[in-house]
Hints:
Rossmann fold, four-stranded antiparallel β-sheet, 9 strands
Amino acid sequence: MTLALDIDKLTCVRAHRVLFEALSLVLTAGAFVSLQGPNGAGKTSLLRIIAGFLTPAAGIVRIRTETGAILTDGEDRARAVGWLGHQDAVKLQLTVGEQLSFWSKLYGDGAAALAPFGLAPLAEVPGQFLSAGQKRRLALARLTLTKRKLWLLDEPLAALDAAGKVLVAQSVRAHCAAGGIAIAATHEPLGVDGLTLHLGGP
Length: 202
């Protein structure tokens, strides 16, 4: 079976305000979507609904895994997605190497994630001494370790320099080329070919 994401007539209401309604979208393996729109349009809310963190006012989200399983329950979907949000979840007391070692016990080889994101020289540096951009790189490295096929990225370029932004684009392209799906909410183009979905206006 082929990986797929099916968003069916989704409506989101926050603070008694309709952010979007009757939103439908079907994505299959290899798809990339750039989610755009002004602040408050519902970009983060849409990502959180897909991930199972928020409950929609109406509609349903289905993830079809490569094994053919159909995931509609929020908790099941949450376990199937790779999430990169505004918070980088960096433990201040642990070194970069220790943090990737911890995640590697859950997902894979942490050492292999050091070099692609320029983290090898920082392996012994505690999280509290990392810059915002370095923390973002560490969060991206952790995302690649999850081996999860559906990536949801909320402002993935935040705090990154030009080289870091290139790494994000390369990682997303590689992920999609390997049969994954990626959706990125961003105010700045990633430079990855795909669909563009606008919320809150044309």
